[in-house]
Amino acid sequence: MDQQAALVNHYRCDRRKLLEFLLSSGLIKELRTPSGPTNSLSNLDFDSISADYIIHCVESGGVVDVTEATCKYSDESAYPVTIHSQTRSSYFLVSDPESAGSPPRRAPPPLYAKQAVDASCSSSQVDSVFVEKAAASGDDCGPGYEPATNAPPRPLGNSEFPVPSLGLPSLKTGLSDDDLRESAYELLLASMFFSGVEANSVEDRRKEKTSKFLSGLKSKRDKMQSQSQFVGRKSELMDTVRVQMQATHAISIFRCTISEAMDACTRRNLMQLAARKMSGQIDLTHIALGLLNGTFKSDFLNERSYMQWKSRQANILEELLCSATDTTTEHLTIRNYVAKIRDEKEWDTMMSASERVAVVASIRQVAVKLSSLPTQYGIQGETFYWTAIYHVNIRLYQKLLFGLFDVLDEDQLIEEADEVLQIIKLTWSTLGVTEKMHDALYGWVLFQQFVRTGGSVLLENAVLHLQKVLSTEEDDGKEQYMNSLVCTKHCNSSHLKLHLLQSIFVSISMWCDYKLQDYHSHFSQKPCNFRMIISLVSAVGVLASGESGDLKNFRAPESYLLDPMTYPELIFCWTRKLLLVTLPVCDLGSKIKYLPIYLLTLEIDLMKLNASDANASRKLKSYVEKSTEAAFRKVASKVDFESKIERIHPLAQLAKELKLIAETEFNVFNPVLRCWCPESVITSVVLLHQCYGERLKPFLKGVSSVSGDARSVLPAAYMLDQYLTKLYTSALEANKLPNSFNQDFEHYQIEEIAKPFILDWVISQHSHILEWTGRAFDIEDWEPLSYHQRQAASIVEVFRIIEETVDQLFGFNLPMDITHLQALLSVIFHSLDAYLMKMLNHLVEKNHLYPSAPPITRYAETVIPMIKRSLVVGTLLDENVACKLNELTIPKLCIRLNTLQYIQKQVAILEDGIRKSWGLIRPSHEQRQTRGEVLEERSLLTSSEAVDALFATTCHIIRDTTADAIRKFCDFTGARVVFWDLRDQFLFHLYHGDVGSSRLESFLPHVDTVLDHICGLIDDTLRDLVVLSICRASLEGYVWVLLDGGPSRAFSDSDITMMEDDLNEFFVVEGEGLPRSLVEQEAKFAQQILGLFSLKTETVIRMLMNASEHISLRVESHKHGHMALEDAQTLLRVLCHKKDREASRFLKQQYELPMSSEYDDTSSRDSNFGSPLIPDLLKRSTSFHWPKKDQSSFKSIRKKLQAATSEIRDVAR
């Protein structure tokens, strides 16, 4: 209780906080109180305000009226708690929902439910009126098949088949189901009292106990107090039985028949009766007479209850005594006495107490005379009433057994079922029930309850009890006694007599036979029930059938057929396949002898299921055929309506439904049926295939393209054909059956019809995709799609179009060959290749980025003022090139690189997807293999190699082209950063004038800024490539500064040391940049150039002289712009930039080069001009390349180099 109170307080606190938040969050326009509008919430009682009203005001944005909110809360509190069920109904509870338990699983039945009978069972040809006749005869076969039952009947639909009745003899007095239930309860009490067990009653309180219905009405504390007041466990169990029957009846007709007061009176009278009768067995007539003697009108609450009770006792007496005697005189005497009991005026008013006692005594004399008659079978405890009134005994016993089912959870037994069952067994001696008979009736009752509720546990228990019946062996007397309990089956307007056990088995078998003819409909929702039904059929037997599947009914020549209704004196006894017809011939007082007349052969068999029995296999096969046909008819009848809802062609919808039927057959029903019928799946699959093929053929004749209805029907038909083929072959392999594929299957020819249409469709998509690709590229602005998706939007659109095409193609779910794959890959190749070519066409050559070549000078210092010459300015860029350069900014270059990388990734994904989809298509050669044609391994290998070759010529080429484009864009990006965007900060500033004041460290912050910007834009997988390209371009620019830096750059030996230090830390950044080994490898050429500057001037001059001897050969190699490290041009430029007098003097004397001081190198160099000096200076080799354009500038120098070399050699000699 403390915990519950804490939870309530916690809930209220949370509720107050929620309401306070809603009212103070600004979602409410105005808060009105009785004293007027207010903004204060301190005076509000949140516990008395309707939360639903506040939420409604928040949603509508209206005004909150506190008075109305309080009224709403008050109104809501007055309503009971409701529980919404899945059937869209609400249950109003006046008690705690938790203690009351869950609501009923099924809706309550209507007050006057009529049972619709569908007896059109083709396999049994049972007369459609046999159920009605059985009900009219008063056969108490259980709930749903009588005017009234122990539990509320479930209304049967038109398609449902009731359990055939047992065919017990009818009740002549019209005893109702309520009368039988109350009499059964009185018998149960009497049996307990006569067995020496006391069962005290409590009149001043309710006697709810431990069934789920009762446990839901009281709390645990109440139940503990209630239990403590009962005297003895037996008394508790009887209270449970009484309330169970009382609750069952109250639910069915809304009134209680076994009231507490009446129960107390009944117990009192029965206890007195048991005390007076100390020996002998109790029978039903003595119970009824004893109650008539000891019960008075004053014991009842109203006169109506008394009259109903008295009428029931009179009917019981008449039914029992008239059924037990055959003489007309005794019948008249009994009916006369019973009529007096029924007559209210005569019995209660006119007759005195002694006269009433006399009437009861007269009836008792008849009952004693009958009970003293000799028994027939010599069973211990047997009485004359066992066989005389067996139809009443069996009905009463069934009522007791039906009381074991929980009222609210009808597919479950009450918790005390085992204990109550032991009490019920006390009635065996009175009702003539044996162990085998009990198991049969209990299994029959469980089976009926399963039919009503669908409870799997009930069916399982029913199977166990019926199997126990078959395994139980009783002595001959009990067997003969069981065979004497005759039941009547109506068949073809004739009457067939069966003993009780056979009647139970036949009734169950007939119901199972009907259900198994459409097991797809009845057992798809609960497959476990199907397995149990087959187990049940294997126990009780299945109706034998001929080739046509019809029941072999009772047949006899008309001249020999005696109708039992015409000759009621005939007694029929069923023994195996013979019907023994006997006629009473004499009456010898207490003994009756019978003379056999003739034997009629019956052809009604209950065939046991046996895997080796061909007849059983044929019977199950007929079930498979009929159920499959019924399932097909069912879906075919609804397919037009469902196709309109799904908006697809009816044939496509039908194929989907049939696939589900086949799947259910294979996964659910076949594992059960294959033990007795291995070909069950094959039978069902072939039948479904044929039925659908008949409807498909007319449609295929009108197909002209893969569009419209054909777009949905052809794939659905092909998938159904493939799936049914798969199930067929799987069943053949699993059961090791002979392959008769060609005889059973005729494929739908979808492949031959669809192939040309599919190829035409793929070809038609080619121009469409190319058009969309070009349009997407032309409108591209090269901005990132999002922060996380940094590629261009156009490439996403291109791949979307391609993927849609691929999905549509494979979404056809139609057979294809390698021609279709080739056409698809061709479309993809041309689309992506066109996109890549457009992207590469927007790229310009790197030589447009390089600055113009400076003049070659020698280092010389002068203090004489002179007019300095200006540097030569390069030519203007072409307008088209300039326009492209303006578009190729660093951010847009990064987006282009990201786009190329996206192409690489998506091509791989696309290839994997196409390969998987192609593998699922299963080309036609695999179908041929299924049909029994063996394919050579070489042909399969060739097909696989052809597919790999197709992917190699498309996806691999696209990847190679994309990788080459990435390399080109990376190289251009590095050149753009160094030679275009940072040319002023790097090329024109590095080592300009004085090395110490313009070292590399002043340039690095600009590079860091650019790198940070690029790393924020570029894809992570491309970052190192772009940084490496910038590193290479920077080293290329560094060499440009060393060899072609212009008149303002001259380097001394001390400068070289600082320059080497700069180069060692270039792009390494204290170990956080590029790997040092990679930088060192890329900087190798620059290091070698610095090494030339470190050499002595004489050494460089000597190297220049040696190189000049091969200058003519070197010039020839300039066709490719190649220059080696020790090339004469390289060595000459090293001398030009050495701050050395000897080098200057050498250059002046030999080449007459002007002094560097004669040029003005301070003028700005417009980056819009470009006549590159070295467009591709730095490669991975130790050489660099000069452009062909610059070769002309060395023509005049070449002659001077050759002349100078000759002169120097002459001097040296």
Plain-language structure description:
- The chain has 1213 residues and is mainly alpha-helical.
- Among the domains are: 1-78, no CATH class; 170-199 and 233-378, no CATH class; 614-748; 751-859 and 881-923 and 947-992 and 1010-1045, Orthogonal Bundle (Tetracycline Repressor, domain 2).
- Helices cover 59% and strands 6% of the residues.
- It is built from 48 helices and 16 strands.
- The chain has a three-stranded mixed beta sheet with strand order 2-1-3. A three-stranded antiparallel beta sheet has the order 9-10-11, with no helix packed on it. A two-stranded antiparallel sheet has the order 4-5.
- Helix 35 (890-921) runs antiparallel to helix 37.
- The radius of gyration is 53 Å and the shape is elongated.
Summarize this entry quickly.
It comes from Salix brachista. It holds the Pfam family TPR_PATROL1. With about 1200 residues, the protein is mostly helical.
Comma- or semicolon-separated keywords:
1213 residues; PATROL1_C; 48 helices; mainly alpha; Munc13_1; three-stranded mixed beta sheet; three-stranded antiparallel beta sheet; elongated; MHD1 domain-containing protein
Principal-axis shape equals: elongated
**Helical amount:** 55-70%
CATH topology of the domain at 751-859 and 881-923 and 947-992 and 1010-1045: Tetracycline Repressor, domain 2
Averaged pLDDT: 75
Q: Compute the number of strand runs.
A: 16
Largest sheet: 3 strands, mixed
Domain MHD2: 997-1104
Pfam family, one: TPR_PATROL1
Domain MHD1: 711-843
Protein name: MHD1 domain-containing protein
